[in-house]
Amino acid sequence: MRPQQAEILLTLLDEGSVTAAARRLGRSRTTLSAALSALEDELGVTLFERLGKSLKPTALAWSIQPDCQRFLSTYRQITARCEQERQGIEPALRLARDDALPEDFWRGLMRQLKQRFPMTGISVYLAPPQELPELVATEVVDLAFGLGVPGVEEISVTSTSLGGLRQWMVVSQQHPLARLPQVCPEDLAAHSQVTLAFVGADEQLVPDLTGSGNYLALTQFELIRDAVMEGTGWAWLPQPLIDEALQAGRLKVVKTEEAILWHVFRCFERSGGLKGQVASWLESQLVSYLSRFS
Known about the structure:
The longest helix has 22 residues, at 65-86. The strands form 3 sheets. Strands 3, 4, 5, 6, 10, 11 and 12 form a 7-stranded mixed β-sheet that branches. A 3-stranded mixed β-sheet has the order 8-7-9. The protein is elongated and about 95 Å long. Helix 1 crosses helix 2 (18-25), helix 1 (3-15) crosses helix 5 and helix 2 (18-25) packs across helix 3. The chain folds into 2 domains: 3-86, Winged helix-like DNA-binding domain superfamily/Winged helix DNA-binding domain (Arc Repressor Mutant, subunit A); 93-294, D-Maltodextrin-Binding Protein, domain 2, CATH 3.40.190.290. The chain has helices at 3-15, 18-25, 29-43, 59-63, 65-86, 103-116, 132-137, 185-189, 221-229, 239-248, 277-290; strands at residues 48-51, 54-57, 92-97, 121-126, 143-147, 157-172, 193-199, 205-207, 215-218, 235-238, 251-253, 260-270. By secondary structure, the protein is an alpha/beta fold.
């Protein structure tokens, strides 16, 4: 059985007549009748009883309908994957990312991606930005997206700037630092810094600190944000994650001379690698989103 024959059989079963099936498939009645006869000869069975100009499906025809549906679906998936390969669309893509950008943005982006590239398998791993280059270098993932961290580099990894992000030093509205007219380094040292924890080169979990020994280190920016809003301490946080809380007054920018940092949001990939359509589309969407904050 060929895919075209399976399609004709299924359409005849759905429509109940050669005329209606021919109209739906855009073919002549003669072509469909000939194709059906050839299929019955090939299989050595009767699938439709001829009653004048009408056809009546046999019990056998109905019994093989599910198998024909699966066969046709499999064939279409095979041809779609082959066409995807010809167009340079990756069959699968392994991604790592940090959470410097909001989760609702990433959910929407993944939904759009699957609508646009339904045959591409996508795996996403969440990690602190310090770990992203290593994940690419060791080929755990194909691409990684996140904040570029000074001093964290891999020779075999190329990074491309997708846009810039501000990081603000913030505290909750009720925190003692929020009430000070001017905050000095000694004030910061007197209160807990909530910061990122990541696996370092020695395979140990280490905190990303600015000199303080008083800290709470967590592995995600969103966890840090939530801890800060609960009054646990102060932290550096990316603007997209805290815009809403700043506008609502739940977070306050610390009144210090160094309350803002500028970081580059990057794409990390293996040096010399070629991007397919899915990776290129992802990059373009991120560039567009990040342009709002530049």
